[in-house]
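Weekly modeling sync, notes
Attendees: S.R. (lead), two postdocs, one rotation student

Agenda item 3: backlog of single-chain predictions. S.R. asked that every request posted to the team notebook include the full sequence so nobody has to chase files. The rotation student volunteered to paste the first one in as an example of the format we agreed on. Action items at the bottom.

Example entry:
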Amino acid sequence: MPGKIVKIDASRPEEMYSRSKEVISRGGVIVYPTDTFYALGVDPRNAAAVKRLFAMKGRHSDQPILLLIAEASDVNDWASEVTPQAQVLMQKYWPGPLTLVFDARANVPAALTASTGTIGLRVPGNKLTRGLLSYLGHALTGTSANISSKPSPKTVQETATIAGLVDLILDGGETAGYMPSTIVDVRSGVPHVIREGAIPSKSITA
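Predicted structure, as returned to the notebook:
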């Protein structure tokens, strides 16, 4: 496992970005830090990579996978509609620990949506994570780097149960997150909090 770990140099992240792109472009899986926890990243439009991700986590196919995007405008690649209420929340909380659930575009793979027709998207608060997403030129899966139902990892050491199954691990030290992202359904005129996390529900609905 040690050979898989790359310590992130925040002053020179290009090498880390380049190695990540090489792995992901060939269908590989990376572990990378976000502003909440460490995540498992694959190209969400690579069906084989997504299937591998589900298998290594022991995740059921009826559980959707959220995506991390580099900037708010990337929402249009995945969401069929962005409501005015969604725009307000995006402007207020992105980048940050808020996942918004949209109606998915028709071309979004069903494996990502768990055949619900919806997709969860987030712009992470971690600057290096956004830099990685920009360098790749596409979204990454943002599910936590753990076996399903196990605690979400804040350090590389806490990813040990799944580390042997991935191709590359980016070590950015302990993440700042102490809670997962808050998940909000923004498909209708009134935002609906699905899961309260780092952002309190009252801040969303106020």
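Discussion: group reviewed the output briefly. The radius of gyration is 16 Å.
Action items: rotation student to repeat for the remaining queue; S.R. to check formatting next week.
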